[in-house]
User: Fold these one by one.
Assistant:
Number 1:
Amino acid sequence: MSGSRLAFMTLMGVIMSLNPTGPGRSQEDIWAEPRQQMLLSVANDVERNSHVLGRLRLSPEVARALALTPRHEFVPSEYRHRSYENCALPIGQGQTISQPTIVALMTDLLQVGPEATVLEVGTGSGYQAAILAEVAGQVHSIEIVPELARSARKRLARLGINNVRIHEGDGYMGLPDLAPFDGIMVTAEAARVPGPLLEQLKPGARLVIPVGPAAYTQQLTVWTRDEAGLFHEEKLLPVRFVPLVRKGEF
């Protein structure tokens, strides 16, 4: 059995334990089949890009988070029928909800556990924050567009995700008052790595960020801070993200 198929079967076990069958099936069940297709597509992508993770499949914790998080709740109504396509989708304000494969890879690359406090830059719809909430103890997420921050806050509260705190502000500067963090993820393209974010990493922690010019392909990059306080860069995968918006640019 291929690695992707094994990972897919593991995810299916999680899903089958969640969804009732028969006459009393819930509204949630209408998404079961497209979700299964999305998970299989992600598993195939991860296997093809195994050099990025150094293994054939996602960690069990990240795989479970992807299976449990209802992506259709984070997609605008006009695109909801496409919720489980393995692609980015518009969410308004010139922003997107990222491709599930990229969400999964970035979460896995962060390498955080249930005791971790994580910073996300670029809340958007709140989908990535919801995935992080399944693998980390506390998630702080910064969104510069007030409308997106407010809607994401309400959405996460409605879904009962209570270990995410959304902040309105310039994500480039991070949250120095709450630093240092066990991991930082940037879900928008930066022309260069923000120095304030690097300085807010704990020793041993990682910053996962797409770096490069907005008009071209960027590189998904991992920066690690070692115990001596030095930073190490690893470029992993070509990606395309919307630009990181700064104060005064929206």
Number 2:
Amino acid sequence: MFVPPDLFGEMAFISAVYKSDPATILRSAIGGSSLSGTSYYIRVGARANLFVIDPEKNSLNFSRDPVTSIVKRISSHVISKKVFNS
């Protein structure tokens, strides 16, 4: 590969090319985690596995539609913390 995989870039590409609903794209990206054998949905009693996004780094705090902004505008540089407690 010449370019490292970037989930946020892939979501923006799908949104632009296929005109899919941003909420559906985000759910698909999260749901794809089950392919690794562990689903990363937040559930009662489950261990936390998540990314913390810093809204200040990409003006996300001014967004009127955070889901669409996450799918179309952010990149991996806005992740301020990764929490994996599998």
Number 3:
Amino acid sequence: MLCHSDLRGTSLTGANLTGTDMGEANLRGANFTWANLSGADMREADIRGANLTGAVFSEDTILETGERLSVYQKEVIPALLTAGGRSLADVLSTGCWKWHDWGNCPIAVAFRAKNRSRCPVLLQPRILQFIQLFDANLLTAPEIPSAANIDNAV
């Protein structure tokens, strides 16, 4: 259990943190390269600047914002990528999910922004979270709802 711990800048490279409670821990700048965070609870942890490259998350990993990764994938990402007024299909049709530089970042495409500061200020925490998870290859592209699914939902 690492909840409420101060692990700023700590190297947790390759650590098996499966199911670990890291709630409210200070993990700022920690190195989680290749760490297994499957089922970990990072609720309210400070992971700003943490290196998540190669980390392993599972659908039930709880992010610092309190959502399970599965909920983040299904609900938050589509909402975030359409908050700029473009449809999810329009954003994803650009091929932006394949690249990890700002010019092709899904957020840049969604908001037609030349840099992050051009995105809505109220969404900045979510945008930073998305970029951190996206750059660490922890996210999968959302599914574009088919016309049939949209018609059935109405």
